[in-house]
Amino acid sequence: MGRKWNNIKEKKASKDANTSRIYAKFGREIYVAAKQGEPDPEANQALKFVLERAKTYNVPKAIIERAIEKAKGGGEENYDEMRYEGFGPNGSMIIVDALTNNVNRTAPEVRAAFGKNGGNMGVSGSVAYMFDATAVIGIEGKSSDEVLEILMEADVDARDILEEDEAVIVYAEPDQFHAVQEALKGAGIEEFTVAELSMLAQNDVTLDAETQEQFEKLIDALEDLEDVQQVYHNVDLG
Hints:
This protein is of the alpha+beta class. It has eight helices and eight strands. It has three domains: 5-72, Orthogonal Bundle (Arc Repressor Mutant, subunit A), CATH 1.10.10.200; 80-129 and 204-233, YebC, transcriptional regulation domain (Alpha-Beta Plaits), CATH 3.30.70.980; 131-201, Alpha-Beta Plaits (2-Layer Sandwich), CATH 3.30.70.980. The radius of gyration is 18 Å and the shape is globular.
């Protein structure tokens, strides 16, 4: 199941290093979570989760505070959570999650990104059945056996615990996300290299070099869209 999560995150961070795109996406997600519930993460699990993710991407405190204050002030912007599914070259599968205040804008933009880059958008459910919602939590400084022992002592279940590069990645059911984190925090772990709720493909596919280049352009085009928050796929990018 290993997806080399630290490498994936490093690639994203490198891509976003010269822009404020990732901060803007987190700002929107934090605002939505804070507005839908209490603006206090201890009383709002959705907000707490987003803030945990934001920490792993080093989102500036000012961005976080501004989004929460905007929600407290009764910001008038309303966003809908949308999921689009489609296919890339050679039958590769893609899921696109968006937060939008204008569905009539977002859907055509996503469709155009697919169409211009060798893909096509499918109907709802056309690929999602090939993915599993999964909590992905990564740490450093412990072995997989040590992490397993910590989780067992806390009576927390995990699907898998793998050593990937210099990190240990825990894969668990989505509803175990906070339980896994709390168990690890209880063992003295304060920082997480990864803290995501993801959609993992049940089976990865490998593309030849030329097709992979085209596929990566498609993913870049989708991720560059303002309303798109997350893009998941089933391609092993190596």
